[in-house]
Design a protein that fits this description.
single chain; two-stranded parallel ribbon; 2 helices; 16% helix; 6% strand; 70 residues; mainly alpha
């Protein structure tokens, strides 16, 4: 089964600021093994192949965040 988490932005935690909190932990199968796919009525809007896509780990690392090992 899959699920999602809705975050409540208490104390202005979001957006993340690498200058004040630079370590994050990523959870879930989609983080470790992302699946990039397009289907349905919006598929024509995305022309990138999976190799051209950036996963969450790469995006956060590229922005200067340190990713905690699990």
């Amino acid at each position: 089964e899959e699920g999602a988490v809705l975050l409540k932005n208490e104390d202005n935690t979001l957006p993340l600021d690498v200058a004040t909190e630079n370590r994050v932990t990523l959870f879930g199968r989609a983080t470790a093994d992302p699946l990039f796919t397009c289907s349905g009525s919006q598929s024509f809007l995305v022309s990138k192949t999976p190799e051209e896509c950036t996963d969450l780990y790469e995006a956060l690392s590229g922005a200067g965040f340190e990713i905690n090992d699990m």
